[in-house]
Amino acid sequence: MRGFLLFLAGLTAYAATLIVSQRILAGGIEARPLRILIALGPMLPAAFICAVVVRSLRHLDEMQRRLQFEALALSFAGTALVTFGYGFLEGEGFPRISMFAVWPLMGALWFIGVMLQRLRFK
Asked: For 85-104, how does the pLDDT look when each residue is reduced to its tens digit (9 = 90+)?
């Protein structure tokens, strides 16, 4: 429960930081170094969220840890295959896709991996 509350706090901080940084950037700050720092501001709570996830994984039992490991391996390898493949297609005229599309792909493949592992270990 504590891990979930920390995760929720991190997500809340991320959303708030993202909204504030986008509003500040839309206000017309001209100094490029300052714009870069403000644009990267949401990465601080994102790093906190990563630390919470790693901490949560460390507290799982061996079976759950194995399940998560195999799901993350599928997500890692699947994301690499899809993004590399699409990179070749971009060279053939397919539209460029933002790097923001990578995490949802990785998250979806992780979810599929968890579901497959749960079916496997039932």
From this structure: 999 999 999 999 999 999 99
Q: For residue 53, which of 90, 81, 11 has the smallest C-alpha distance?
A: 11
Question: For 44-58, how does the pLDDT look when each residue is reduced to its tens digit (9 = 90+)?
Answer: 999 999 999 999 999
Rounded (5°) CA angle 55-80-110 = 40
Phi, psi dihedrals of residue 25, rounded to the nearest 5° = -65, -35
Q: How many other C-beta atoms lie within 10 A of the C-beta of residue 91?
A: 8
